[in-house]
Amino acid sequence: MTNYLEVKNLSKSFDSFQLHNISFTLPKGYIMGLIGPNGSGKTTTIKLILNMLQRNGGEIKIMGLDNIADEQKAKAELGVVFDTNYFSDDWQVTQVEKSISVFYPNWKSERFAEMLRKFHIAPTKKVKELSKGMQMKLMLACAFSYDAKLLILDEPTSGLDPVSRDELLQILSEYIEDGEHSVLFSTHITGDLERAADYITYISYGELFFSGSKDEFVDMFRIVKGGTEELSADLKEKAVGVRTFPTGFEALVKTEDTGAFSPLSIEPATIDEIVVFTSKKGDDYE
Amino acid sequence: MKLIISNVSGVPIYEQIKQQVKAAILSGELKEDEALPSLRTLAKDLKISVLTVTRAYTELEQEGFVKNVQGRGCFVMGRGSELMREQLICKVENGLTDAIKAAKIANLPNEELHRLLDILLEANTDD
Amino acid sequence: MSNTLKATKLDFSLVKPYIKVIGFTMLLPIAFAAINRSILTGVSFAMCFIAMTTGYTFSVTEKNSMERLYGILPIKKSEMVTGRYLFVLALGAMALVVSLITQPIVLRAMGESVGAFDMISAAIGGLFLFALYTVFQIPGYYKYGAIKGRVFMYIPVAGFLATLFFLPKMPADNPFVTTVVSSPVLLIGLVLVLVVVMYVVSIWFSIRIMENKEM
Predict the structure, then answer these.
(1) Is the CB of B10 less than 8 angstroms away from the CB of A267?
(2) Residue A128 contacts C, CB cutoff 8 Å
(3) A178 touches chain B (CB under 8 A)
């Protein structure tokens, strides 16, 4: 299986924050969600992949190319969407194409025009006149016009309405359908990933918590619920995280530990629940 | 074939796909050698993970319902396949058991039950 | 097209909304030339003004957080920086050409005589001043950004005032100055070499700043 993105032992130190030994692999043809609470290092990881930040250690390969030694070659295959657009506000959509297309040898103007039609973006509009969702689609249209093989999205859905978020997922599902494209998608709105993501990489406060298939990730934990008096010491000890309230408790427990608590209500956990319960530990971190 | 994914049933999505494909095969809606929807197209259409569909298809293959032809897709195995037959026989047994139970409650003699089955078989010979 | 030229082209599209301001900046010095009845003054003003507009690319980039665009384009930082210098030089060259065409027309219409020597010395003087301003400005913008570094916009003004102040005080009897001034070829050659060296050093600094900058 070809890997489109390989990150090995990636480290970066800032004065107040450290990213530690992050490793993950995204094979060709799949969607990976990069998740974690705000400030856990998602954007830092993405900027390190783009060589916009200088790493302190580790190795990054984009489609087999070193992200620093072969930076230009790698970036010609890369499409990036940030939470806000990176074009000049005063550019018309046509000017965006004129300005950007020269940098990509594979740029197809017909493809760009087709994408604008598909996304209902008027070519004469200025960037600042487009809604946030439209601006995101414009960045995608650019990436599709040079047939970027790997798409990296940094918090693309923050500030988007549910309709645009759903459209994005639709676009991404179509993008990977032919098996030749991959997506790395960072978000703290994990509902977006619940269905569509194939892999999950979960970074918590600069540390890698998990990287692997989403089904495996979700299957690792269960939510155990019960009345306050049912919260035994054993359960407390085994739980990854517990939330108590006057009428009962909810606890995240590793699936293999749930056997002992079978009389209680045991449910599958969502990605959100896993992130919330596992990152509570970090409360005293900040 | 109809595939409906529920988010609230608590049944994992791959399991839902498996169950519905199996039901379609057993009901004859999916015929022998008929192709299942392409893995990636199905994932796109249902907006679910490719790996989830892969898992459903792989398990269906392991259980002998479909065969995966490299590069061409997944195809429904023949009805003669051992497993499908077993499942069908099982279905017949269940149906007959139900019939016997109902007959007992109705105090229907065994000969009458046999006769009923013969009549029904006769009536269904056309298909 | 080389990546450097592509970067230059991108810079031109960045300042497109400012095209009228830039055009006005190129024509305004005609007034100064007319008031002082000197093409040397007119061209010096022109180069000072146009050097003040080089910050536009930086301010547009900063306003729109376009360092992220530069971060994803398949182009080296050194090419981006060199492209920016080419853009600035092209802008300067345009201002110089516009001035050298329009100002003599106006001056002659006013009855002044503008000879070839006046034109050449104005061109050389203008080029030198422009280089002097921009070689400090650009690394400053790269280092501090257009907003924090907006003080660099005024380098041309400061430089211009300094020139006005020091030029008359130059010891005219210095043997080096006399030799250079008396030989136009030597003067032109010296200025050109100096300009090239200044830009090479400035570009080197800017590239180093950008390569170490984290976005």
Answers:
(1) yes
(2) no
(3) yes
Selected from 3.40.50.1820, 3.40.50.300, 3.30.70.270, 3.20.20.140, the CATH number assigned to the domain covering A3-217 reads: 3.40.50.300
**Topology of B13-76 in CATH?**
Arc Repressor Mutant, subunit A (1.10.10)
Q: Which residues of chain A are within 8 Å of residue C66 when distances are taken between CB atoms?
A: 86-88
Distance CA A234, CA A240 (A): 12
Q: Which stretch of DSSP H or E encloses residue A251?
A: strand A248-254
Beta bridge partners of A81: A153
Domain ranges of chain B: 13-76, 82-124
Identity of residue B93? E
Tell me, rounded to whole angstroms, the distance of Cα C98 from its chain centroid.
14
* Ranges of H-type helices in B1-127: 13-26, 39-46, 50-62, 82-105, 110-124
Binned at pLDDT 50, 70 and 90, residue A282 comes out as very low
Section C166-174 average pLDDT: 64
Instruction: Give domain limits for chain A.
Output: 3-217, 220-285
Distance of CA B1 to the CA centre of its chain: 12
H-run or E-run covering A99: helix A93-101
> What residues are paired with A211 via a beta bridge?
A201
Place of tokens 């965006």: A96
Q: Which of B5, B6, B7, B49 should we substitute to test contact with A (largest number of A Cβ atoms within 10 Å)?
A: B49
Closest-CA residue of A relative to B14 is A215
Q: In this structure, are residues A258 and A224 in contact, taking their beta carbons and an 8 Å threshold?
A: yes
In angstroms, rounded to a whole number, what is the distance separating the alpha carbons of residues B9 and B19? 13
Indicate contact of B with C: 3+ CB pairs under 8 A: no
What Å distances lie between residue B104 and B30, B91, B119, C77, CA to CA? 36, 20, 19, 88
What pLDDT, on the 0 to 100 scale, is given for residue C5?
A: 94
Q: Provide the residue type at A53 as one letter.
A: L
A84 vs C contacts (CB less than 8 Å): 65
| Cross-strand pairs, A22 | A10
ipTM value greater than 0.90: no
CB C22 within 8 A of CB A95: no
Tokens of residue A267, six digits: 């449910």
Q: Which amino acid is at C81?
A: V
The answer to whether residues A79 and C73 touch, using CB atoms and an 8 Å cutoff, is: no
Pairing assessment for the beta strands A182-187 and B66-69 based on DSSP bridges:
unpaired
pLDDT of residue A108: 95
pTM to 2 decimals?
0.84
Sorted by where each begins, the domain ranges of chain C are 3-212
Q: Measured between CB atoms, does B72 come within 8 Å of chain A?
A: no
Q: In what order do the strands lie in the sheet with A241-245?
A: A241-245, A248-254, A221-226, A265-268
Q: A25: which strand partners?
A: A6
Q: So what's the pLDDT on residue B73?
A: 86
Residue pair A150/A78 in contact (Cβ under 8 Å)? The answer is yes
Q: Rounded to a whole number, what is the distance in angstroms from the first to the last CA of chain C?
A: 27
**Which residues lie closer than 8 Å to A220 by C-beta, 6 or more apart?**
A210, A254, A255, A274
Q: Say yes or no to pLDDT of A281 above 60.
A: no
Question: Which amino acid type is present at position A71?
Answer: E
With beta carbons less than 8 A apart as the criterion, state whether A22 and A10 touch: yes
Cβ A173–B12 below 8 Å, yes or no? no
* A209 phi, psi to nearest 5 deg: -90, -40
